[in-house]
Design a protein that fits this description.
Elements lengths: L2 H22 L1 H8 L7 E16 L5 E5 L7 E2 L4 E5 L2 H57 L5 H54 L2 E3 L4 E6 L6 E2 L4 E18 L11 E6 L7 E8 L4 E2 L13 E10 L10 E7 L6
Antiparallel strand pairs: 1-8, 1-13, 2-4, 2-7, 3-6, 4-5, 6-8, 8-12, 9-10, 9-13, 10-12, 11-12
């Protein structure tokens, strides 16, 4: 063996020994492979994510004229995030309110017509009763030959005309009732249109549906807002979750709803309590962007660990580890 060969061999021996010592050193092992698991638990790693809502205007198409917040701003539920030019929608509301007022007046007019027609019918009934009495007297007088045939015929005609007038005016009362029904239906339609206008007008203001952080601002002042056009992406920081992956052999040893202890490098020593909220039904290869504590060639299952975050310490994108206790296989 040449001197150079002996030197290379000694160098390799020292390198192997150094690597072995490094791996036995706990901080270095954790840096290379992640936190150490034991037989009773596994440690998974991933990133904190937040439930997101993409906010846009509903049933509105108008330019944006109020947009006070930038990305990263924390807002409370109900905060006004944006407004659009609402002049068209306010004018439409005024027009429909005027139509509603006309419909109300029409109802009042038809009710007055009904009252007048009913009074006319009452008068007709009194007149008919009187004409019938006169006709009855004319019949008696004619039998006694105390009146002329002409007077009798006049009494008969007057009674018949009074009956016809009563029938006509009773028909007008029925028409007045129908007119009122139609007018009231028109009024209900006008009131519904005004209500719809007010709902539409409320859509010109975009409010935060929950408290959170504006993760993305996708619009600028003067841009045309329309249904489905994103304005903001709002992150719910009260309820965040950890996206992580579990190796296939450990899948049968965890359960939905099982507790998990979550830790981060940002707040060392602090433990956040979470629960497994989702376990994927299909396996996938370990994503290249995710570091696990096993070889990357193995199949893994994605899980979601839900975490309450009332202090908003956990932020989207923050790396975190979760320790999950393993259940006995088959349970």
């Amino acid at each position: 063996m040449t001197r150079r060969t002996r030197l290379v061999a000694l160098t390799l021996i020292f390198a192997i020994a150094a690597i072995g010592a490094l791996l036995r050193w706990s901080p270095a092992r954790q840096w290379l492979f992640g936190p150490r698991s034991n037989e009773n638990s596994i440690v998974v790693s991933g990133n904190i994510e937040a439930h997101q809502s993409v906010l846009s205007f509903t049933d509105i198409q108008a330019p944006i004229n109020y947009l006070p917040f930038d990305e990263g701003k924390y807002v409370k539920a109900g905060t006004v995030l944006a407004r659009v030019d609402d002049r068209f929608y306010r004018q439409q509301l005024r027009i429909d309110e005027a139509n509603r007022n006309v419909a109300r007046q029409q109802v009042a007019l038809d009710e007055s017509n009904l009252a007048a027609a009913q009074n006319t019918v009452a008068s007709d009934r009194f007149g008919l009763a009187e004409k019938r009495r006169e006709y009855a007297r004319a019949q008696v007088l004619l039998k006694r030959q105390a009146t002329s045939r002409q007077a009798y015929d006049q009494a008969y005609t007057a009674a018949a005309q009074a009956a016809t007038a009563l029938a006509r005016d009773e028909a007008l009362v029925a028409v007045a009732h129908k007119n009122i029904g139609l007018a009231r239906a028109n009024l209900r339609a006008a009131e519904a249109k005004v209500g719809l206008d007010r709902v539409t007008l409320s859509y010109t203001t975009l409010r935060a549906p929950f408290s959170g952080v504006l993760a993305v601002r996708e619009a600028e002042l003067g841009e045309l807002a329309a249904p489905g056009v994103a304005i903001f992406t709002l992150d719910d920081l009260d309820h965040v979750w950890l996206r992580a992956y579990v190796n296939e052999p450990d899948l049968g040893k965890i359960r939905l709803g099982e507790a998990a202890d979550v830790t981060t490098d940002t707040y060392p020593g602090k433990v956040y309590h979470g629960r497994i909220g989702f376990i994927a039904s299909q396996a996938e290869f370990t994503p290249k962007t995710v570091e696990t504590h096993a070889e990357r060639i193995t199949l893994v299952y994605r899980i979601r660990i839900d975490i309450d975050n009332p202090t908003h310490e956990l932020l989207p994108g923050m790396p975190a580890n979760a320790t999950i206790a393993l259940l006995p296989a088959g349970k």
